[in-house]
Amino acid sequence: MALSAPSWRLPIRCLSKRTPIAQYQRRTAASNSNNDGASSGSNPVLEEYLRNNPQEAEKSGGRMQAPEGMGQAGDIANSSIFEDERRAQKQADSEDGEVSEKDGVRVGGVLRDPRAMASILDPNPSAREQWEKRQVIKMIRKGGRLSKEQFIKRTEREHLAKSHNMKTSVKKLGMLARQIAGKPIDDAIVQMRFSKKKIAQEVLKQLEAARDEAVVMRGMGLGNAAKEDAEDFNDSDPSATGSTSESLEEVKATEQKLPPIDIQLKSGQRHTVTDRSKIYIDQAWVGRGPYGQLPDFRARGQINMMRTPWTSISVVLKEEATRVREWEQREAKRQRQLKAKAWKMLPDRPIQIQRQWYSW
């Protein structure tokens, strides 16, 4: 005969008469039996609301009902931070009605109310109006003239690209940043492709992504591409329209006006610019990221936590036209300095007194 274990040795789940599944079914049946969603003891928020507002309990005839805006049992309370937006939307819909297609703004296929979006898009209208007024006054005082920085921003293109954090140190990535700074983007990509550094492959991907972003977002490096496209279209279609031939002539005329120029860089190296729209890396620097942790298991059960560095690299891409302008400014400044320091012959003056040693 098998002996049963004493009751005090049985687990607590076996002693309980109600299993979790039975309890869940009982609660579900109780909540479904009440159509108003106010099952007794299932909504503490509703009970607290009725205790604080006895008038609402009397109006309901002794039966607990969810107040207006609370919804079914288990819904969020009126004091919730998520209830303010819903209550404001319901009030706006009840007062002004639904948003029409004429007055609303459709964002992502959803009709939005511009009055509800104004709190985020334009939180301080008075400050925005004052800023616009100051900008208009500044433009009127200057007569529409742009400053030197504004003129450069409007006439020259540049693109800033920052990479994600890479698992390397600042010293290792800094050497690659100094290696590619000042080089054309294509030469820098070739340098990283054949580099023996492990992190050079990650830098190669970032340079290619930065080049593609500069071409697509800023329209950089499209000087020769426009010429080649026009020539290919003209060669493929002999009966091309006059507009295409005119555009090709304009490109050729521009190239005639801007011949290849030999300039001197800041480092003293000579550089020949054949295409002024070619992209080069003007600046390249590294930034320190967060540190990770890596265990270092030692003798006698000891563990040292090593700090693994993470580093990012940032590059500024510009066109060769910027190099030409900077070189012209440096040459003009040097010529002015030489002209100021040049010796000038004294004017001829008549001799007043002639003595052997001194003149009084």
UniProtKB/TrEMBL annotation:
Keyword Ribosomal protein: yes
Pfam families per the UniProt record, alphabetical: Ribosomal_L22 (PF00237)
Biased composition (Basic and acidic residues): 83-105
Organism: Zasmidium cellare (Wine cellar mold)
Biased composition (Low complexity): 29-43
Protein name, UniProt field: Mitochondrial large ribosomal subunit
Region annotation Disordered: where it falls in the sequence: 25-107, 226-254
UniProt KW keywords: Ribonucleoprotein, Ribosomal protein
SUPFAM superfamilies: Ribosomal protein L22
Superkingdom of the source species: Eukaryota
InterPro entries xrefs: Ribosomal_uL22 (IPR001063), Ribosomal_uL22_bac/org-type (IPR047867), Ribosomal_uL22_sf (IPR036394)
Biased composition (Polar residues): 236-246
UniProt record similarity statement: Belongs to the universal ribosomal protein uL22 family.
